[in-house]
Amino acid sequence: MRNRSVRWLVLALTLLSLILTACGTQPAAQPTAAPAAEPTTAPAAPAEEFTFGMVLVGPINDGGWNQAHYEGAQYVVEKVPGVKFIYIDKVNPADRPNVKVEQAIEELIGQGAKLIITNSAEFADGTNIAAAAHPDVFFIHASGDKVLTGEAPPNVRNLMGRMEYGKMIAGCAAALTTEAGKLAYLGPLIDPETRRLVNSTYLGARYCWETYRGRPASELAFKVTWIGFWFNIPGVTLDPTKVANDFINEGYDVILSGIDTTEGIVEANKATQAGKRVFAVPYDFEGACAQGEAVCLGVPYFNWGPDYKRLVELARAGKWEPAWEWTGPNWSNINDPDTSMIGFVKGPALSAENAAKLDEFIAKLADGSLNLFTGPLFYQDGTVFVPEGQVADDKTIWYTQQLLAGIEGQSAP
What we know:
Blueprint (H helix, E strand, L loop, with lengths): L1 H23 L25 E6 L9 H15 L3 E6 L12 H10 L4 E4 L5 H10 L4 E5 L13 E6 L1 H15 L4 E6 L4 H20 L9 E6 L13 H10 L4 E4 L5 H11 L5 E3 L16 E5 L2 H12 L6 E5 L14 E5 L5 H16 L9 E2 L5 E3 L7 H5 L15
Parallel strand pairs: 1-2, 1-3, 3-4, 4-5, 5-11, 6-7, 6-8, 8-9
Antiparallel strand pairs: 10-12, 13-14
């Protein structure tokens, strides 16, 4: 028994030795570090939604003035997080004969708008009435000057683009292209804005006619017919389709439009398809050449988006101040969608040779070597608009009183 016990003891000691040896070969367990805590940041509270509204005189798809404003608002929505856009369009005597602009504004404010844009000169008084009644709401009146004259409440700003440059470029393109030496201007109503735009078009045309065509100004015919409003109102205005066709029948071979809609280019395109050679320069909206690419020399257009974005951000930040702004092109790139209020898109009907001349003309405007509002300039009745050797200042141009000598058409309603 003893020997068996000894053997069991030896066996037990051997097993214990093996176990201890095995344990001794394992690395000591290392403490496991707790995972590093992720920095915790409370989720940012979403910025309060900022609603801005727009009252438009015409439809948002007019291919002109109103569509340009509408797309400017869409630019703001795309570029500025947390904004909402609402609108009421066609606020005019034909589409909404019993609706005043201040009523449309009240509707938008009732829907939560904290900034309102109104886009017609005829909306000036209604905008100011609404602004006075709602001092906590911000207002942009596009094309007006009541801030300049001191008549606007402090929550109003005026904004307009210096389309005079776009119209000079348009006039140059027309003068470079015309074969008959006859340019027609399809005008809206008569006021200082429309007079200065017609004059700018004529000045651009006259300069390019003389400089690049080598022809005297006396051989250039330039006629404007006013329809009476920014677009056709049956029974109230002249029919722009008929006016455009009258131009064509009288031998005018370039129609430059100053109205909000596309009748000028549409009729020029029809006439060309019928065998005549007529060109067109539409207005307001960058994509207007699409109505007649074969006859389109180009389009001077407004790009409201960047300025609307800036002003929405000012209003939202509570940094609003009254101001009258007359914004020009970004001359380093007049078609930059993020910086230039005024642009000009060359049309397919503009020849490569004339496009090069137009570029030269634009470069002169851009570097300041050419200022077409340099005197002597005379009104139709022979009175002096800008004296010889002088350059018209902004107020002189803004409050243009007549059409210039050399233009056929009415200066007053």
